[in-house]
């Protein structure tokens, strides 16, 4: 239980975005962050890509066909959506809005396109972090060792990384992922600091008023 819940101070949840080029660590850090922080839950996106080994439907992604995805776009059911490497990804709107109003924090593992769209619709709730690799060679090594993609796909991702990295300055925070432990510590520090921002403590005014009444 967080400090706000202990003091019965209502807080609005935040949308915590982690972005990076493929292989720079956002998925690994996202999973470890969720394991370490019980007050954070993952926004489960819809995607038209195939499920990868180790992924679970409804937990990692909602795996849908392109027709179903396009129908959701037409019904304005996404906070953001984008086409990445020939596949569509989208964040469903209703569960996120419900969670924020209940003071729950939501983690987003999305790219710069999705982050831009979220910024247009919910900037006040948004905290964005971009992860950079320590070197270009290390990025390629991580993609190869991941062993999830063919050589052609790895090269495609490397080619796209330059464009992805070019958007680093659009983010609130930038971290060089030169080691998992250090990067995790920095990400957690950002999250805790953002939770303490006055504008998110929407019950603080009521708490301070009651506090002063007790003093008087």
Question: Could you explain how this protein is built, in words?
Answer:
The chain is α/β, with parallel strands linked by helices and 216 residues long. It has a single domain, classed as P-loop containing nucleotide triphosphate hydrolases (Rossmann fold, 3-Layer(aba) Sandwich). It is 45% helix and 20% strand. It has nine helices and nine strands. A five-stranded parallel β-sheet has the order 2-7-1-8-9, with helices on both faces. The protein has a four-stranded mixed β-sheet with strand order 4-3-6-5. Strand 5 and strand 6 form a beta hairpin. Helix 6 packs antiparallel against helix 7. The protein is globular and about 70 Å long. The protein starts with a helix and ends with a helix.
